[in-house]
């Protein structure tokens, strides 16, 4: 096992754990707003760790730069999509969950 693989493997595993946590949050939380929050936050952080692991594994600056660019585009699109979904839910009368 190479040094880059030893550095990348924990990053990839942490990323997978964040994806799993986001999925659990989406399935278990009570309303659309908390589900969107859990899903977008966990997926963005999870993708960041996976991008970091893949960048370390690639060993090339240009590939790492492309991966970070893709991650940035996903960050922007996830935030925009979550906002549009929440705005649509508000228009349809969805109320935030209260204890």
Description:
By secondary structure, the chain is mainly α. 85% of the residues lie in helices and 0% in strands. It is built from 3 helices and no strands. Helix 1 (3-28) runs antiparallel to helix 2 (32-58) and helix 2 runs antiparallel to helix 3 (61-91).
- By oligomeric state, this entry counts as single chain
The average pLDDT value, as a whole number, equals: 93
Shape: elongated
Major β-sheet, in short? Answer: none
Helix content class: over 70%
What are the segments in which pLDDT stays under 50 over at least 5 consecutive residues?
none
Structural class: mainly alpha
> In percent, how much strand structure appears in the residues?
under 5%
Radius of gyration: 16 Å
Please report the number of helical segments. 3
Number of strands: 0
Question: What order do the helices and strands follow?
Answer: HHH
Distance linking N and C termini? 50 Å
What order do the helices and strands come in, and which of them pair?
Blueprint: H1 3-28, H2 32-58, H3 61-91
Label this structure with key terms.
85% helix, mainly alpha, 99 residues, elongated
């Amino acid at each position: 096992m190479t040094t880059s693989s030893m550095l990348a493997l924990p990053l990839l595993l942490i990323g997978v754990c964040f994806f799993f946590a986001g999925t659990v949050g989406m399935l278990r939380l009570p309303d659309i707003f908390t589900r969107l929050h859990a899903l977008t936050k966990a997926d963005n952080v999870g993708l960041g760790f996976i991008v970091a692991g893949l960048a370390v594994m690639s060993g090339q600056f240009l590939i790492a730069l492309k991966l970070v660019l893709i991650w940035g585009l996903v960050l922007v699109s996830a935030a925009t999509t979550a906002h549009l979904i929440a705005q649509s839910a508000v228009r349809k009368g969805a109320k935030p969950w209260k204890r």
